[in-house]
Design brief:
There is one protein chain. With about 300 residues, the protein is of the alpha/beta class. The protein has two domains: about 130 residues, ATPase, nucleotide binding domain (Nucleotidyltransferase, domain 5, 2-Layer Sandwich), CATH 3.30.420; about 120 residues, 2-Layer Sandwich (Nucleotidyltransferase, domain 5), CATH 3.30.420. Helices cover about 40% and strands about 20% of the residues. Helix 4 runs parallel beside helix 6, helix 4 packs antiparallel against helix 7 and helix 7 runs parallel beside helix 8. The chain is globular and about 60 Å long.
Length: about 300
């Protein structure tokens, strides 16, 4: 066996994974950070504390006694101005494991791990080292990306477009909390939206998203959903409206890119079945290949980090 450890301590989830590069199997363990009912996020100081508690438990559960390489996400994106304290927990533990064991350490970004996890889940690891387009859509990021190999990483990302204000996951969580759902609200909001009688109606809400140079605005969705709520609209229709708004924003980013490259969708928001169905159909209408991760590899996870570590 050739085993590779991945560690990811993001703003929402503590995650560890082992990738066997011979069998291509992944074993991973993850645990959401606790967020109090009614709140829409977590302070970084609290995130650091909970990661410290949860990471040691998950590594013990994983039973990684001997690995060949260690990988860890150390920042949200691979950019000098991209930093969150929560990632230092994983970086410290990974560095300690690699140093004590005399193993190679591979530092990547959380975003690169997401893209690699999506490729693995979709059965498209053959795209590694090639040029393709990707989306990273989550609570902290809503970006369209051009992925190319570099000397540092085989899935290095260049931003093509980004939401100009609110992020898709933030919009979903804010609307979900307003509707009384548990944070993070993505799964519950999806279940609610699936009950809407407007689900199969094309453009049921007449949504128009403002977008400048491939950078859409999502700040209006919260206010519009609040008005629907105050007007007594059904919660399932409000949930569907929110998701359709996010869909329109992603379509605007996709269309502005104006290329025919394969598209890989990653990030927790992209586990949503309503969004997947709509975006898959849109890509098909453009003659573009599209690939989506399964839910367990869409949300924050260390699997992609472990796979990247195997390429050191």
């Amino acid at each position: 066996m050739s085993l590779h450890l991945g560690i990811d301590t993001s703003n929402y989830t503590t995650s560890v994974a082992i990738y066997d590069s011979e069998t291509k199997n992944v074993i991973h363990r993850k645990k959401l950070l606790p967020v109090k009912a009614g709140e829409r996020g977590i302070r970084q100081s609290d995130a650091v504390f909970h990661h410290t508690q949860q990471l040691r438990e998950l590594i013990a559960e994983l039973g990684a006694n001997d690995v060949d390489t260690v990988g860890v996400s150390i920042r949200p994106r691979w950019a000098d101005d991209s930093y969150m304290p929560c990632f230092t927990v994983g970086q410290t533990v990974a560095t300690s494991i690699a140093t004590i064991g005399g193993k190679p350490l591979y530092e990547v970004s959380h975003q690169e791990g997401h893209v690699m996890a999506a490729l693995y889940s979709a059965g498209k690891l053959d795209l590694v080292g090639q040029e393709f387009m990707a989306f990273h859509v989550s609570g902290g990021t809503t970006e369209s990306l051009l992925i190319k190999p570099s000397a540092r990483c085989p899935v290095s990302a260049t931003i093509l477009g980004t939401s100009s204000d609110l992020k898709a996951g933030q919009a979903i969580d804010r609307v979900g909390v307003m509707l009384g759902l548990q944070f993070p609200c993505g799964p519950e909001l999806e279940k609610l939206a699936l009950k809407s009688t407007h689900l199969d109606e094309k453009d049921a809400f007449g949504i128009r998203v403002s977008s400048v140079d491939g950078n859409p605005s999502l700040s209006g969705v919260e206010n519009k959903c609040k008005k629907m709520f105050d007007d007594g609209c059904a919660p399932e229709d409000i949930a569907l409206f929110c998701l359709r708004y996010v869909e329109k924003a992603i379509v605007a980013m996709l269309d502005y890119a104006d290329n025919k490259l394969p598209v890989v969708f990653s990030g927790g928001v992209m586990s949503n079945s309503i969004l997947q169905s709509a975006l898959r159909a849109h890509c098909e209408s453009l003659g573009r290949e599209s690939y989506f991760a399964t839910p367990e590899f869409s949300s924050d996870n260390a699997a992609g980090v472990a796979i990247l570590a195997s390429l050191v």
